[in-house]
Amino acid sequence: MIESHELKKREHYLDKLIGFRDTEPVKVITGIRRCGKSSLLKLMSAHLRETGVLPEQIVEMNFESHDFRKFTSDDVYSFVKDRIVNGKRMYLFFDEIQRIDAWEDAINSMRVDFDCDIYVTGSNAYLLSSEYSTYLSGRCVEIRMLPLSFREFLYFYDFELRETKSALGGTRRQVYDKNGERYELREVFDAFMRFGGMPGIADVGLDQDKALSLLDGIYSTVVIRDILEREKRRGQKRITDPILLRKIILFLADNIGSSISVASIGNTLVNEGLLEDGKRKGTPSAHTVQAYINTLLESYFFYEIKRFDIKGKEYLRTLGKYYIADIGLRNYLLGFRNRDSGHAIENVVYFELLRRGYDVSIGKIDNAEMDFIATTADDKIYIQVTESMQSEDVRKRELAPLQKIRDNYEKIILSLDPGMDSSYDGIKSVDLIEWLIEE
């Protein structure tokens, strides 16, 4: 028997949903499968009941459930209509709604016909594609959900941070589990870098075999159900080759944080013997590879980041980079070995910046490049990410692009080993783990 357990709160996202409660837009929660969207709907539903909403005012439909497997959009509308309580505001929750053809017809009709507040989730950006956005333009708000941050990882695994005095008179942070066992913060961070942030792993614990089977399930669901099945439903035969799709996934996972041109991917796959050139009658076209990559971006499996020319003040079309939604998925795909840890921590920083509400791009200045420019409406940070700042050569390399920038915005280097100096010419050297756990 599976034990029922209290849902862990994802305050960051729940607060956003609560902020939009009883406003007209349809609340659309998007993100990769199993990153916690269904749990967020349950948390919101519980919040409504705690604040006086009656159970009969809440209608919840999960389209992964067998109960709704054969529903049409008309059936969805009728199901809700039969449960409307006259004179009361209704709260309608629809989980993985993209599985229903023409679902937007039903949602739009409910919005018009009933006094209701609507929340939907979807694991595919196609949900908010042009067809849908013209339907509900200006009438929906997207809340993008990501796997666990490092701070959330500590909370989900019941780790507690405590400050202890160090031998040198300062303080240092240590981590205690629920049994009172003590760990160094770096040990727990290494576990995060190994297992990733999919919330379901917290239910099975930090056990490699169990984690792998859970990640395998997520991978299969994203690839088979979200990508291959959806292509069939849409009647678009763009993504027809599961072998090519897997090879592209492995290539992108192995090259996170590296500059990639779509044209080069097909050639590289052939050159490395990952695709049999003869059997496929030539290298897949750049157009084909781009179509496959687009579906991976739509399913939130990978995220693409563009280059920004700081002097020219424009985005460049050439050579983007890709980051994977969850570092645990990357380890599942490529094996648990200490591979390319520099790009792996870069991946973590990229998603932490997204969580904190920044727009993120790669910075180019002259021939130099910096890892990230993070901007909001009223703030900008220039960021370099490196494993260690101990070596003189590394320091020079990491500082050089930042030293070329002449404005007064914050410039920081995040590393696991920041060295003794806290700043160089106004450029801060910051401990990456401390940065990840700060409020």
Topology:
Layout: H1 11-19, E1 26-30, H2 37-50, E2 58-62, H3 73-81, E3 90-95, H4 103-113, E4 116-122, H5 130-135, E5 140-144, H6 150-156, E6 160-165, E7 171-176, E8 182-184, H7 185-195, H8 201-204, H9 208-234, H10 242-254, H11 262-271, H12 286-298, E9 302-309, E10 314-324, H13 327-334, H14 341-355, E11 359-365, E12 368-376, E13 379-388, H15 392-403, E14 410-417, E15 423-424, E16 427-431, H16 432-437
Helix pairs in contact: 1-2, 3-4, 7-13, 11-12
| Number of separate helices | 16
Biggest sheet: strand arrangement: 10-9-11-12-13-14-16-15
Point out poorly predicted stretches.
Answer: none
General shape: globular
First-to-last CA distance:
38 Å
Q: What's the alpha carbon Rg, rounded to whole Å? A: 23 Å
What's the average pLDDT?
Answer: 87
Largest sheet: 8 strands, mixed
Summing up helix and strand content along with how strands pair, one would put the structural category as alpha/beta
Task: Give the fraction of residues assigned to helices.
Answer: 25-40%
CATH hierarchy, class of the domain at 11-144: Alpha Beta
The number of distinct β-strands equals: 16
Q: Spell out the CATH superfamily of the domain at 11-144.
A: P-loop containing nucleotide triphosphate hydrolases
CATH architecture assignment of the domain at 11-144: 3-Layer(aba) Sandwich
Range of strand content: 15-25%
Query: What is the fold-level CATH name, i.e. the topology of the domain at 11-144?
Result: Rossmann fold
